[in-house]
Amino acid sequence: MSRADQLADIQKRIAMACAKAGRATDAVQLLAVSKTFPLSDVLEFHACGQTTFGENYLQEALDKITQLADHPNAQQNTPAIEWHFIGPIQSNKTKPIAENFPWVHSVDRLKIAQRLSDQRPSNLPALNVLVQINTSGEDSKSGVEPADAVELCKTISALPNLKLRGLMTIPSNTENTDQLKAEFLQCKTIFDELNNQGLKLDTLSMGMSADLELAIECGSTCVRVGSALFGARSYPK
To answer: What sign results for the dihedral spanned by CA atoms 79, 80, 83, 84?
Structure first.
């Protein structure tokens, strides 16, 4: 199957899920998760019209950003590729993230948000951020506890060089649809509460290759799709 066909299949799944939920097709953005795959694969999808790509591992992402800038056809890569950082964030990684990405999906504590704000270069627009909510309750997952999410989001929204755009969650690794739906809806409830309190959020990053239809049913505005586009990943040992 060609890259164009793979992309079209995912776009069709999104469109059908939107129609079933009574939502406009353009209400949901596709973020192609390119972690562990080379820049050449990214460029193949970009040539088919995909412009937003998510990366989990900082050094790998920075390498791709550098390679793209040095690419012989860099000036022809229009519209430009937009990189989203979606992985866990350690304090010693905030500076390069603040300097190189327009979007961050995985802010989960105030210290990280403050560092991103302080280290965002003055010549760049405010960094778009999502607060990650740990709806599964698993210790192995990053994210703020749901009970603490509203207070954290309000504090982050006041930081000078960040623009709080919404929330992100990674649900439990389960095939139990009821459990997944409950976790997605918990995140949507927090999202709605924050909007009702005047924060004007517009992005709810929920859903991946296996569960994007359910996430869209629950209100997702951004699905993060990797393996269904790029294929199975091979992680270094």
So the answer is: negative
pLDDT band at 72 (very low <50, low <70, confident <90, very high): low
Rounded CA-CA distance 64/123 in Å is 22
The token pair at 194 is 């924050």
What long-range pairs does 177-180 form, CB within 8 A, spacing at least 24?
177/214, 180/211, 180/214
Q: For residue range 130-154, what is the model confidence (pLDDT) as tens digits?
A: 999 999 888 878 899 999 999 999 9
CA distance 62 to 90: 15
The CATH architecture one would assign to domain 3-230 is Alpha-Beta Barrel (3.20)
> In DSSP terms, which residues pair with 225 in a beta bridge?
32
Q: Which of the 8 DSSP states describes residue 71?
A: -
228 Cβ neighbours under 8 A, 6+ residues apart? 6, 9, 10, 209
CA atoms within 13 A on the CB side of 224: 23
Q: Which of helix, strand or coil describes residue 169?
A: strand
Domain regions of the chain by residue span: 3-230
Give the per-residue pLDDT at 196. 97
